[in-house]
């Protein structure tokens, strides 16, 4: 068989591959600024012209951008698949909110499973930090802040995705982060999580999930993540049904009042037709 010549890889190609890997694995986050050219060239052990060529090629691919005042940044909306108008549309429809919870059950269960298997010491430190911040929200009785609680909840689940060391799972969660955060705020508010039972339930579920990941119990972590979403689905469904019954009862009361008011008595005591 004929043997083709091996073309030596250009240094810029190697730098491109290295930077792409750092973006893909989440070492370089969307919006992150690259170190100064001189520093980065020293870290890679390459010449500045080779580094400059690699950066230009990544910029041409849309992975990096240059900003006024100097510096190169990872594209902010890298891989964004849900625009703001679509987020608003999803939030306005109950069926779509249900679909999002179903999607989260699948996504977050897998994230938790792999995080329990693959989390590094740095991941565990980040998980501990975000979990403590979330638990602090539950413990704060001075005045419940739904927005802060939703943000803390979303950051905890993002830390789990980062610990999964699965590039597709990580970037899916990152790209949907704003929608997930707003969904969590909506869910917390809809669950009326200030009720002691619901609040304690959420606190305990997150603690159990955190412990399972930290202890490397992958199957337990997957099950607990799914159970958490099922709990949210059940409580929201129950509250929605309660609200529908209350609205139905209100309509019946209004109708009953209207019927009883079809004939009324005038001050003199004689019946008077309301239509007159």
TrEMBL record:
<comment type="function">
    <text>Transcriptional repressor for the pyruvate dehydrogenase complex genes aceEF and lpd.</text>
</comment>
<dbReference type="InterPro" id="IPR008920">
    <property type="entry name" value="TF_FadR/GntR_C"/>
</dbReference>
<feature type="compositionally biased region" description="Basic and acidic residues">
    <location>
        <begin position="238"/>
        <end position="265"/>
    </location>
</feature>
<dbReference type="Pfam" id="PF07729">
    <property type="entry name" value="FCD"/>
</dbReference>
<keyword id="KW-0805">Transcription regulation</keyword>
<dbReference type="InterPro" id="IPR036390">
    <property type="entry name" value="WH_DNA-bd_sf"/>
</dbReference>
<keyword id="KW-0804">Transcription</keyword>
<dbReference type="InterPro" id="IPR011711">
    <property type="entry name" value="GntR_C"/>
</dbReference>
<feature type="domain" description="HTH gntR-type">
    <location>
        <begin position="9"/>
        <end position="77"/>
    </location>
</feature>
<keyword id="KW-0678">Repressor</keyword>
<keyword id="KW-0238">DNA-binding</keyword>
<dbReference type="InterPro" id="IPR036388">
    <property type="entry name" value="WH-like_DNA-bd_sf"/>
</dbReference>
<feature type="region of interest" description="Disordered">
    <location>
        <begin position="238"/>
        <end position="276"/>
    </location>
</feature>
<protein>
    <recommendedName>
        <fullName>Pyruvate dehydrogenase complex repressor</fullName>
    </recommendedName>
</protein>
<dbReference type="Pfam" id="PF00392">
    <property type="entry name" value="GntR"/>
</dbReference>
<dbReference type="InterPro" id="IPR000524">
    <property type="entry name" value="Tscrpt_reg_HTH_GntR"/>
</dbReference>
């Amino acid at each position: 068989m004929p043997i083709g010549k091996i073309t030596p890889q250009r240094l810029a190609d190697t730098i491109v591959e290295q930077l792409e890997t750092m973006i893909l694995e989440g070492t370089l986050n969307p919006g992150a600024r690259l170190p100064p050219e001189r520093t980065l060239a020293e870290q890679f052990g390459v010449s500045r012209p080779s580094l400059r060529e690699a950066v230009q090629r990544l910029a041409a691919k849309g992975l990096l951008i240059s900003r006024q005042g100097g510096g190169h940044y990872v594209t902010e909306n890298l891989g964004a698949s849900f625009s703001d108008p679509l987020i608003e549309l999803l939030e306005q429809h109950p069926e779509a909110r249900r679909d999002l919870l179903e999607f989260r059950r699948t996504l977050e269960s897998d994230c938790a499973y792999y995080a329990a298997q693959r989390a590094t010491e740095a991941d565990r430190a980040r998980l501990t930090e975000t979990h403590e911040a979330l638990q602090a929200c539950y413990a704060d009785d001075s005045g419940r802040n739904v927005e802060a609680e939703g943000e803390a909840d979303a950051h905890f689940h993002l830390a789990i995705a980062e610990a999964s060391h699965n590039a597709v799972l990580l970037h899916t969660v990152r790209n949907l982060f704003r929608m997930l955060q707003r969904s969590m705020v909506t869910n917390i508010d809809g669950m009326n999580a200030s009720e002691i039972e619901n609040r304690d339930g959420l606190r305990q579920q997150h603690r159990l999930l955190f412990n399972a990941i930290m202890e490397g119990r992958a199957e337990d972590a997957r099950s607990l993540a799914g159970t958490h979403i099922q709990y949210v689905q059940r409580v929201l469904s129950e509250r929605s049904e309660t609200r529908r019954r209350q609205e139905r009862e209100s309509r019946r009361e209004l109708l009953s009042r209207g019927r009883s008011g079809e004939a009324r008595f005038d001050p003199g005591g004689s019946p008077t037709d309301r239509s007159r």
